[in-house]
Amino acid sequence: MTYAPTPGAVISEVTALGPFFALQTHTPDARPVEPWVPMSRKLIEDRVSAVRGWLAAAGGQPLDAVEVRVAASVTHLGLAARLLSPALAAFVLHGRLLAFGLSDAYWQPVLGGPIPLSVPGTAVSAGAIAPEELTAFLDGPLGELAAAIRPFSLSPHILQGNIASALNGAATMIATARPELAERTRTAVTLLLAGPPLRGSATTTANGTFRRRSCCLIYRAAPGHKGSLCGDCVLHRDADSARSR
Fold it and tell me: pTM of this prediction?
């Protein structure tokens, strides 16, 4: 008989992968109380302001030295990674889908490190899904997140690149924690990157390095816009080209 874990068992196994995967659950009639708050559009906008202040302080700069759109991109990337990591893990571990509305998720919007996250106890699908059904998560919570960030004038190209980067980061963490899942994880990631809405958002170089095709802009938060580039940044392409010659 095939083992079919309960939704609670799936959540526990996902959480065991590490802090970026950790989930708590709640029921509609017993939602978390403060410091937990719903992941509403207003609070996401407030998060952009808080991240902007944090980036300015980290660089020893006045607030207006950090562009709002830079803070918005960093906010989007961080939240996308936090939402996507457990969703990818639930699929890779047991073929399950995490399905919930963004405002049904509760979080503690602390700065620095993975945020505490709680989702409805009904979020885990009752049975396994087909791999292509995993894209529903991109259209669901991540689509709502993109809509909440849209007023900050970030291009779809950057938003898609952020999600691709978050997806690759989650896959790397899963493969590190559970090497036996590496092949299945990469297969799922390849599927997601090949279809809408992520098609064209990333590529793999000749030496096997993952590269997104946009920049998250965080280098611009440093004084003089001269910060370090992320490891998967498109702006590394000149160095990649030089190594391949």
Answer: 0.94
